């Protein structure tokens, strides 16, 4: 039920920067949205009115109390906003979990949640992940001292892991290569269109449209074939495809082939780019902070001493996790979330009329000086239990929050811990000196010019010495 929290005498409206009719603050925001939203929050406060966006009014909410109200306390009142969505992109995502609302969403979430959050499932994922990482490590160790683009490598690695976990496809198979190739086309298409004011309809056969449609067709052909084969197979598979095929709603009804396909592809959308960009930023932060790097080495030497991590090691890789948390605070892959309120609402004392578009910005909230001491400083120690105590619930939202919190949060945090631990034990990744690193906000927050780094072998002495000390 939608909670009506408006008292009759509350009609305070938020202020904000000068805006234009219809397009509001879009022109100022489009050139550097992170700077624009950060300045808007610093100048106008917890809730900012950003003028119109088409027929809707646009508001930015950054204070943790307001964020919590939207994501948790009154979440029934919010549906996903679609102004920032490319409607043609739904051709790819279909009716998968990330795109659904209301009862359909609840039913899907209930079905999928245990596959991502049960201890047994995550434990099974760990050995799958370490096998894929081991292969990459072997390749990298054979090309030590070479320069690679870590951003591109992390994308391929996280794609291989997700594809293996979802479909049990061999990371070196031609199907995996085809999905990865098709994904490049899809991502390029989406990146070009997401912020474009005018989008050429898909029915117009421009070369870009044709390539996009072909890429979707490639993905569909592979996924549908796997669904058909799996329904006929008597073998046991410990992957998400089997989970979906065997899943039953409370009514006993199973999922259609279309819905299984939609869920799989929606998980590609949710998981590929976000994981890869976050990992890229971790390597960048480590390359810039040698003191953090040595502390990480100490932990790896103590916990692992050079061996491959297991599921039981994950809780002991505490500092590794703190490095990841701090990187995702400074560089949240999902830097903006948008939604629409069904009924009027009151947020941090401000009246928000029904049908408005609300944006939350994890990036801005993660940099609020009122919450975070030295917000721009990379300081993994701020995630120690002592320093984290008392921090407001919604001050940190790289995975969103509330009932629609990221389903892959445990999966991906585990994956990142394993990748950082396994690679760092053997190699040091050094950013090519002088390479410009800028944030690109067109989709997931990524590095605009890639992350060229050199793979420097770590001397085995480094590990053993620290072990003895
Ligand atoms: C570092 C990597 C990741 C980040 C930063 C991230 C972030 C997020 C965020 C912020 C949301 C909320 C979106 C919204 O409310 O509109 C979300 C939702 C979701 N994520 Fe992730 N995600 C990551 C990786 C993954 C992975 C690896 C998977 C699965 C393979 C995944 C599956 C999902 C799903 C299914 C949802 C929709 C949940 C729902 O609506 O109930 N994510 N993610």
Detailed description of the structure:
- The chain has a single domain, classed as Cytochrome p450, CATH 1.10.630.10.
- The protein contains 17 helices and twelve strands.
- By secondary structure, the chain is of the alpha+beta class.
- Strands 1-2-8-5-3 form a five-stranded mixed β-sheet. A three-stranded antiparallel β-sheet has the order 4-12-9. The protein has a two-stranded antiparallel sheet with strand order 6-7.
- The model is unreliable at 464-469 (pLDDT under 50).
- Protoporphyrin IX containing FE (HEM) binds at residues 80, 97-98, 109, 162, 267, 270-271, 274-275, 278, 333-334, 337, 398-400, 404, 406-408, 411-412.
Separate helix tally? 17
Query: What are the distinct ligands in this entry?
Result: protoporphyrin IX containing FE
**Count of separate structural domains:** 1
Could you say which structural class the secondary elements and strand pairing correspond to? alpha+beta
Helix content: 40-55%
Residue fraction in strands: 5-15%
How many strands, which pairing sense, and closed or not: the largest β-sheet?
Answer: 5 strands, mixed
Number-wise, the strands total: 12
- Under CATH at level 1, the class stands as Mainly Alpha
